[in-house]
Each structure stands twice: as C-alpha cells, then as structure tokens.
Amino acid sequence: MRIAVLGATGKVGHLIVEQAVERGHEVVALVRRPEAYTPPGQGTVEVRKADVAKPESFPDLSDVDVVISALGISKGDGPGTLIAGAKVLAGLPVRTLSLGALGSGVSTGAGGGMYQAIMKMVIGKQLQEKADADKIALDGGATVFHAPDLQVGGISAMRRNIPLDNYLKPFWPPRVSRATAAALMLDEAEQPKRGATILVPVGKAR
C-alpha cells in the first residue's frame, strides 16, 4: 500500500511514517520543509513539499492509496492551519484519515468532566478550530480519530478503535500512547471498517 502522511514531522506523524515503513508500505512524507526532514533510518520514504496554507501548490496525490493526516498546530502557526488542512484533504481524490482530539466538537464531554476541564485549560483556544476542521473532514468523507491525552509509550497489543457513539465516558481522564494512536490509524488504513465517522483510539501502552 502507498500511504501519504501529512504532518510527518510531528510526534504522531513521525511514528506513523516509521510504523508504516516497518509494515512494508511505501510512504510519502508531506512536509513544509523537505530539506529539514529526517526520515526513519530504515526503508525508503519519498518526501514531497506540502503546505496547507498554499493549496494552489499542494502536491498531486493521485498515486497514493490513502492519506493519513496528523497535522497539528506548530509553534508560530497562526489560526486556521487545521481548517486549511481539512479543506485540502477534503478536495483530494483519495481516502483520508485525520487525527483530531477527544473533547472537541461532537466529542465534547466524552472524556469525562475532569478531562474536559483539562482540555479547556490546555488547548481551549484551539477547540473550536478543531471542531470546525473535523466537520470539514467528515463532510469530505474522512475517518476522524478523536484521540484522548497522548502520552509516551509503546504500542498496545490490546488496541482498538471504538466508534464515538459506543465510547463509554470514563471517570479518570483517558490516555493513549502516541505509538498506539499511530498504529490504530494504520490499522484502519490497511483494513477499512468505517467510513466518514469518528473513532476513539484506545489501548494501554506496554
């Protein structure tokens, strides 16, 4: 499978690229500054310059099977980055998967009261943009992953994607490792089970 990864320089995006290569996939890393990108030590990764703020010069992706977006808001980015990314992805002729955040938009409150309070304190200003970007992605047919608090850790052997409607609200703030979230996005890319819907990645890290 040929997989394009948007946001390949981020903490989750880097793991998606690394794990995709380990699984034997061909990977296209979409980054703003190709000259500053360091691909994983093993495998071959094609690098293409891609800036969602400049959609007119976004690379052609008709040669890939799926696009996985782990796009985030980097230091120095102004508002609108996530929305711009969602609009670009919605216009692509390929299947797309996008990383979002539990506690934004339709999943507000799904992580429990303590978790939602933490979300408001930590990324309160970004919650509305995340919600707006998710709506654009879903309307465009993407599968959106509402990940809870992302932690350092290994890949959970008991990982699974749970549809938001079936996700049971926890008492304690939920967490998942970045590696597990990356693995679950790749699992869905390899064997699609859901269409335009919201999934919650869960699983205890090793």
How does this structure look, described?
With 206 residues, the chain is α/β, with parallel strands linked by helices. It has a single domain (2-202), classed as Rossmann fold. Helices cover 29% and strands 23% of the residues. It is built from 5 helices and 10 strands. The strands form 2 sheets. The protein has an 8-stranded mixed β-sheet with strand order 3-2-1-4-5-6-10-8, sandwiched between helices. The chain has a two-stranded parallel ribbon with strand order 7-9. Strand 4 (66-69), helix 2 (81-90) and strand 5 (95-101) form a beta-alpha-beta unit. Helix 1 (11-22) crosses helix 5 and helix 2 (81-90) runs parallel beside helix 4 (127-139). The chain is globular. The two termini are 27 Å apart. The model has no long low-confidence stretch (mean pLDDT 93).
Per-chain topology:
Elements: E1 2-6, H1 11-22, E2 26-31, E3 45-49, E4 66-69, H2 81-90, E5 95-101, H3 113-123, H4 127-139, E6 143-147, E7 149-151, E8 160-163, E9 175-177, H5 178-190, E10 198-202
Parallel strand pairs: 1-2, 1-4, 2-3, 4-5, 5-6, 6-10, 7-9
Antiparallel strand pairs: 8-10
Features:
206 residues; alpha/beta; Rossmann fold; eight-stranded mixed β-sheet; 5 helices; 29% helix; globular
Shape: globular
What is the spatial order of strands in the main beta sheet?
Answer: 3-2-1-4-5-6-10-8
* N→C terminal distance: 27 Å
Given the structure, what is the number of helices? 5
CATH architecture: 3-Layer(aba) Sandwich
Stretches where pLDDT is under 50 for at least 5 consecutive residues are none
Q: Mind telling me the CATH class? A: Alpha Beta
Kindly report the average pLDDT value: 93
Structural class: alpha/beta
What about the largest sheet? 8 strands, mixed
Query: What sequence of helices (H) and strands (E) makes up the elements?
Result: EHEEEHEHHEEEEHE
Number of domains: 1
Taken as a percent bin, the fraction of beta residues is: 15-25%
Q: What is the radius of gyration?
A: 16 Å
For CATH, the homologous superfamily is named as: NAD(P)-binding Rossmann-like Domain
Might you state the CATH topology name? Rossmann fold
